[in-house]
Amino acid sequence: MTPAAIRIDDLLFRWRPDAAPAVCLRGLQVDAGKSLFLHGPSGAGKSTLLNLLGGVLLPERGRIEVLGQVLGDLPAARRDAFRADHLGFIFQQFNLLPWLSALENVLLPCRFSRRRAQRAGDPVAEARRLLAALDLAAPVHDAPAAELSVGQQQRVAAARALIGRPEIVIADEPTSALDAARQDAFIDLLLAEAKAVASTVVFVSHDQRLAAHFDASFALAGELPA
Ligand SMILES: Nc1ncnc2c1ncn2[C@@H]1O[C@H](COP(=O)(O)OP(=O)(O)OP(=O)(O)O)[C@@H](O)[C@H]1O
């Protein structure tokens, strides 16, 4: 049986005790090495769920197990270390450090996680390999992130998420700034690289057209009554 990379049971999260649940779901499982497309309208709780998966937020009720670890069982500092070691994130706005080069941005996870650095082997060579695999030519590697196009920034963000072979890659609507053809090409590159290192991918978007690229999809319904 394939082990689950992510297992969620009976999850409830509210931003405030008197607010409607931002996330409420009975169960969700993502098997190791598979890709999940998570969709739902604006405000449905997609980003909130990703923060719960990363252990940035803790649920009011229920259980989130990532790679066999129940996140709520870890103290905050160990949750941060677990996230740095095992999860690669691509953020909506990419969150690159503009004064660093593309290459230096890709290397950042190796500074925060010894495990990611070790798994990268030669981190600089691996960062350059990932950038090239994501269709970024060598001159771009050394350019400051501030000087990159949106499409180039997105590929740098993807390489940064993938370096050191994290078991799980989480992408929060990273394609919305691109046209349809470029969105498709980006997703194919991301999934190919993730598959090559057997990473599980959770990809969030409101654009259901993208679902066809993924092994499975899951809909978040939107705000529920308190
Ligand atoms: N920091 C916060 N404090 C309080 N409420 C929040 C916070 N972040 C999100 N929310 C609320 O939680 C709900 C879910 O928001 P979330 O950002 O998870 O949705 P989303 O599906 O990612 O939306 P989008 O597609 O627009 O990014 C919304 O009602 C939102 O207003």
UniProtKB/TrEMBL annotation:
Pfam (any one): ABC_tran
SMART domains linked to this entry: AAA
GO molecular function: ATP binding
SUPFAM superfamilies found in the cross-reference section: P-loop containing nucleoside triphosphate hydrolases (SSF52540)
InterPro entries from the UniProt entry: AAA+_ATPase, ABC_transporter-like_ATP-bd, ABC_transpr_LolD-like, P-loop_NTPase
Domain of life: Bacteria
Signal peptide: none
Keyword annotations from UniProtKB, A to Z: ATP-binding, Cell membrane, Membrane, Nucleotide-binding
Residue ranges of every copy of the ABC transporter domain listed in the record: 6-224
Record's protein name: ATP-binding cassette domain-containing protein
Lineage of the organism: Bacteria, Pseudomonadati, Pseudomonadota, Betaproteobacteria, Rhodocyclales
